[in-house]
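In the current project phase, work has continued on tokenised descriptions of protein folds. One protein thus recorded appears below exactly as we store it.

——
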Amino acid sequence: MRFLTKLEAAQGSHLVLWHGGNLDALEDNVSHKKGRWEAGPGLYLTTHYDTAKKYAKGSRKLYQVTIRKGTDIKDVLVPTEEAKDFINSFVIKKKRADILGRVDKHSRDGKLSADIFNNVMINEDALNSSNTNELRKFLVEKGGDYSVQDGMFGWRERVVVVFNTNVIVPKIKSKSTTCQQSGARMRFLSKVQAALTEDEFKKYRKAYNKKDGDQAFTREAEAVIKELNKLPDPFPIYRAICVASPAKINKSLGVHWTYKKEAYDCVGESTPKFHLEAQAHKSQLDWNRTVARGIDYDDEKEVNFTQPFKATVKVYDAKWKLVDTIEGVIGEKGKR
């Protein structure tokens, strides 16, 4: 798709993208915390509506953003000496010598690709958070407007990281997902409880779409229900906890369980990690909450239950070696 690669289109030279965040007061100053600028210090826009929607939580909103055709940093060459001046001014001091060497290695005829320069800054974690905006300004000064990234979030989408906010068409439209979907979602999910088979769900989907017309939402719900229906009955559930030993595990095992084996990571690198595995029946699922969470946070694969239940739980160490078996209660709040 040439338009998405070079931002050129048969219908003019604009591209409509999505962003989940807060752009009510868009400023030409985009600093990033450590680890939050995977493709460069800029405004992250995506062609994939659902990706942006997942970031539009709490006080953040969903925006439709149109940008004009500009220059990808892949098409920009930076004078090597100017790149070195930037390094000596803004790069973390102990990393300067190594990065200067990398710039020399990638330079040709006294110039360096702006894209390579940006990647070196990212991969070497070369800047403090306060200086990420200096890199953005440097890329703009050298003629770069954005960077186009393919498949960045794992979808078949393209992400445009905007460095020069002047390419953004001034009118940014806010799309309130809460206002548009909350009422429809509640009406629809009230029917999901009975939709334990795909045939039953198709009946509800047809009626729902005829009444509310929100086919995108029902497709998401359908995908979650299909995935849940593919699970065996009973099916294994997992979670990860951070305790010093299996003896420290509280018998009230909490509500946050997942049906994917790669259970949640623990917080705190110094604490040993243990994985729990138990069995649950589909009849114990709270389908409304489980489907709703699957729509909003499909990467977590979390399940919710209508009420607490007793279960035999296998305890594994960090390498999934069985170390203990305990009896506990799943689905009630308690200490981990």
